[in-house]
Each structure stands twice: as C-alpha cells, then as structure tokens.
# Entry
Amino acid sequence: MTFEFSGVGRPAVDGLFFRPYRGEVDIPAMAHVANACSAADGLEVKRDAEQMARDYASFNDCDPHHDVRLVEVHGELVAYTRVWRYQEDARLMLHSQLGFVRPDWQGRGIGRSLQKWIEQRHREVAAQHAGTTHQHQVFVQQSEVRRRALIEAAGYTPERHFFEMLHSDLEHPPSFRLPDGLELRPVLPAHHRLIWDTHREALRDHWGIAQSRPEDFQRWVGSKLFQPQRWQIAWDVATDTIVGQVKTWIDEDYNRMFDKRRGYTEHISVARPWRRRGVARALVAQSLRTLAEAGMTESHLGVDSDSLTGAVSVYEDCGFRVTKRNTTYRKPLVPNVAARGT
# Structure
C-alpha cells in the first residue's frame, strides 16, 4: 500500500510518495540514504545492508511495518524514518526516533513532514499504554546541524548532554592500580550472566537507563561487542563478588572502513560500595593497556556529561579528552485518545 503526503504543509515536490516499509527489499536503499546523511554530517558511521537487515528482523522495541515510513520521488528512495519506544521505569515511557533525508533532497520540507508523522505515530502508540507518562525523545550528534534545527523548531528542548572522549596515546597508559583486596580474573562462560546482572544493578541509579527485558541478555551475548577475552573484571577476593568492570572491545569493520586502529573502553560500572575508591581508574588503565597490546593506537568512550559518579573527571585523569558534545532532546507527549482501543 502506498500513501501520498496530503494536507497543509505537503512538500511541493512532484512525484513525492510516503509509504510503509515493505521488508528486506527496502534495506539497501535505506542504508544508502543513511550513509549519505552520515557522510554529509561528518559522522564516521557506515551502515552495512546485511547487518541492517538482521537488525530489522530482530527488533523487539518496534515493528518496522508500522514504525517505519519511507519517502520516494518517482520511485527513488530519498528519505526514511523509524520510531521505537522503551520503558525507562514504571512511570515513564520514552518514544524515540531517527530520520534521514538524503542531502540533495534536504531543505524541501520532507524532514518536517516526516517529523509530523513521527509524532503522530508516537501519540498512537502512547494511547495504548495508559497510566504512564510519555515523552518524545531524540538523540542528536554535535555535527547534525540540520537535524538539531528541525527538532528545536518542533518544540524539543535539550534534556541531557553526552560527551565523546578519545585517548590517542596508548603507548603511555596511566598506571593506576586496583585497591588492595581486589583482583582481575579471566572471564569464563559461567561468569557471563553474573557480569550482566552486576552491571545492570550498578547502573540502576544512572540517568536514562532502560528497564532490562529477558531477551536483552541473549542479544548482548550475540552482539559484535561481546568480546570477553578483552574485558577487565574486578573481583573482591574476600567476598568473591564482582565490584567493577570495563568491557573493552574492537570494531574491526569500523577500523577497516575508516583506516583506524581504534578500540573502545566502554560499558564501565562500579558497584556502589566501591565507588570513589580508584576502581574505575585502575580498570580503565588496564583497558588501555589491553588495546595497546592488540595493536590499537586510540581508545574511544561515551559518557553522560552530568554523571553522578563524576565519570568525566575519572576519564580525564586517565588521559581521555572530550571531542564531541551530543544532546538528548525531549518533548512532552500527549497520547492520541481517539486511537485508544483501536
């Protein structure tokens, strides 16, 4: 089924059509549009159509046939958007979005029309979840100037900022050591679930953390960032419990596409009783040494700029420097009551 834009504000573009997702056949053109946008915005992101198809087939927070809309001009894909939602806690459901308009078709009102569809779809979904607060949400990277202007014009306001940080001198890692009584242990398969659960518990008081679903663990185990041979897991010898972790990883595909030797010092957490005792600094330092031994020349991480644990200063102490400031925007969402029960 094909839908044409209609109503006030329809872009004045001949041959413009607005339609739902038709399945895997759409993926190559969607990847092309998204990659063109990323390149124009100076983002080092390149979507692989095969991986994107696998992702679309396994989504559990959206239904692409209802939550994706594509825009064609005379049969050629020029834009698309996808929405999804997740429960942050029992009181708040967040309705997220992404969207791409091919650079040569920007500035013609297509993005504004897609934004209207996004918010209408959010309202329809919110109407099926009574008894909770709803908000629109969108993550905008520093260089996405047009995207930022679009959503600010639509009434979104900054809710939180996130830094990207880079360490570019892995030949000289810091020398922080674990506190007495803690030790690093190799990761065994029997530890995987405990590592997952301990990390989730440590993040429970952090901003914006989605509620965990039963299928999330298996998705994590099957992801490309699951590289336990590179992790740093600190154990309390006396209690035989995990007190801190850094799950280091390397994206070989990214390094090949962008001619980098980059690793990631990510998924960092420390159990609350052990915070501010040097655990994170020691684990980050060991992560940097692990990456250097693997032939990497730099390490990247992302962090909440207002982290309650003072994480930014910890990472700066370890030699990381801020390279980008990205933003999560939100906007109040009023459910479409007319859609409730339909």
